Amino acid sequence: MFRTILFAGLLALTACDSRQTPAAATRELGLETRFPVRMGDVLARLRVAASDLEKARGLMGVARLDEAEGMAFMYDAETRMGFWMKDTLLDLDIAFVDRDGVILEVRTMTAGDTDTTSSLSDQARFAVEMRAGWFRDFGVKPGDKVAVEDLRAALAARGFDARRFLP
Hints:
Blueprint (H helix, E strand, L loop, with lengths): L1 H15 L5 H6 L7 E5 L2 E8 L2 H6 L11 E11 L2 E2 L8 E6 L5 E7 L7 E2 L5 E8 L2 H4 L10 H10 L4 H4 L2
Parallel strand pairs: 2-3
Antiparallel strand pairs: 1-2, 3-8, 4-7, 5-6, 5-8
C-alpha cells in the first residue's frame, strides 16, 4: 500500500512539473511568430501558415504590416493556387513560388475583393503575401529565389515536418 501511495505521489509531482520539453515549447511558436526569410537580396519577416485553418485565415483582419513583414502559405503539392481578399484590410502583393523557391509571378490583390486571384502556373508550391508594391519597391521579381532553407527552419520551429511542404 505504501508503495502505491509513493508511486501515485511521484506521478502527481511529475504531472505538475511546469517545465516543458523542447518539442512542447517549439509547438508554442504560433502563426503570429515572424521568421527571417530571404527573398532575392532582401531579408523579410514572414509568418508561416501551414495548417488549413491558418491558410484560410491568412492576413484577414490585419490592419498594418511592418515594412518587410508578410506571410508564407505552405502547401504539400504543386498546384494552380487561388487566393481572395475577403475580410482583408490591406492591398497585398502575392508571389507564387515553385518548390525550389523560384518566384514564378507576382500579382496585386485589392483589400476586400472576393474575386479569386489565381496563379498562371500549376507548378506553384507556396505563396508569399506582402504589402502591395513591396516586391516592386525592393526589386524582388519573377526568377528571383525565396530561401527555402529559411522556410524549412521556420516550419521546423513551428513543429511542422518541413519535408511535407519543401521536399
